[in-house]
Amino acid sequence: MFDKEFLKTLTIMYVEDDESIRNSLSSILKKIFGEVVICNDGNDGANQFKYYTLERKSKIDAIISDINMPNLNGIEMAREIRSLDDEIPIIFTTAHGESNYLMEAIKLKISYYALKPINTTELLQNVSKLCTAEHNKHLIHKKEEQLEEYMGIMDDITSIFKVDLNGDITEANDLLCDIAGYSKDQIVGMNISNLLHKDAVINNNDDIVKLIGSETKYKGKIKFQSKENEVFYLSATVIPMKNDSTSAVEGYLYIGIDQTGDELEKQQTMQRVRKNIMEQRTKESTLSKKIKELEETVARLQSNNVNSKDAEFIMNSLNKEKQKVVALNAQITHYERDIANLTKQKDHIVADEKNKKLEMMKKVKELSKENHNLQSKIIELQSQINALQTKLKGSTVG
């Protein structure tokens, strides 16, 4: 069977000088193929092919043509078409074997002979098979072009080199030479161990061979050193190269993407991370000490039968007492201001009282003096009274 969907994508050129045969088969072909270019003879066929391919820039996928035709026969037409397209499938339809055309047909790479009356199913199967093969060839060619383009891109962005079984570099692209700092003449023939970093895990060809082992390839980051002993890193894929005939490994292909910037940034990041870890560990140690001190405090509180509620109560009470102290300090400050004012007032009062006291003492002295004078007068008067009394007694007795 043939793929109807695939045939609908094809453009076929059908060349037949017999009108009845042409009309009959072309009506079938139009139902099967996407487009059918119908030609009356070989000359028309050659001209239509040139028009479609050269002027319209369209593609004709296959040609079905009679051999015996006026103007140009099938062989002559095919010869002109082959000068433009060496691969297009050409199928001849003929009523005879026509062996006189056979050698020429072979030279022109005629793909198939269909004997008249034509078996349509068989014809379509052969057209499908031939166009599928041509389509696949076109795809392969396109893939090869893409692969070549990709390889060109890869050559610009990846370091590519080959080593033999001894580890000697046999080929190297320009990018590797630029990164490593060697000319191509210097690097080709060098053993890979001279390019691998001495301190790296992978530092010789045997290491790579062991890593690959029975696997199809090795993928990983490899550390290298340049001519100036500068470190560079390649994210490399290493593929064993095998002999086409014996399948024996003949060497290894290295394809590497430069990861030096990322690796150095990663190392710097790791250094920052390590520093942060050390700082966090220091903080953690400090916190651990504080936690230990708190745990010891809790233990002491617990040993004194103070539970968490009591501790909370104590803290609340302490806070209240602190608030009270603050309030008392405010009151003390207020009182100190009052005391200062009162002290000033007292000083004034004391001064006044002192003055008053002095005045009173003065008056007391004056009164004391007057009292002394009065007592003296009283004594004098008493003496006078006593004298008078004695005189009076004497008078009475006499």
Task: Kindly list the characteristics that best describe this protein.
alpha/beta; 398 residues; Beta-Lactamase; five-stranded antiparallel β-sheet; 10 strands; 11 helices; single chain
Give the topology, please.
Layout: H1 4-7, E1 11-15, H2 19-32, E2 35-39, H3 42-55, E3 62-66, H4 74-82, E4 90-94, H5 102-107, E5 112-115, H6 120-157, E6 158-164, E7 169-172, H7 174-180, H8 184-187, H9 205-212, E8 218-225, E9 231-242, E10 249-258, H10 260-303, H11 308-397
Parallel strand pairs: 1-2, 1-3, 3-4, 4-5
Antiparallel strand pairs: 6-7, 6-10, 8-9, 9-10
Quickly count the helices: 11
Structural class: alpha/beta
- Radius of gyration (CA) equals 63 Å
The topology string of helices and strands comes to HEHEHEHEHEHEEHHHEEEHH
CATH superfamily of the largest domain: Response regulator
Number of beta-strand segments = 10
Roughly how much helix do the residues carry, as a percent range? Answer: 55-70%
Q: What is the count of distinct domains?
A: 3
Largest sheet: 5 strands, parallel
Provide the CATH top-level class of the largest domain: Alpha Beta
Distance between the termini: 204 Å
Question: What name is given to the CATH topology of the largest domain?
Answer: Rossmann fold
How would you sum up the global shape? elongated
Order of the strands making up the biggest sheet: 2-1-3-4-5
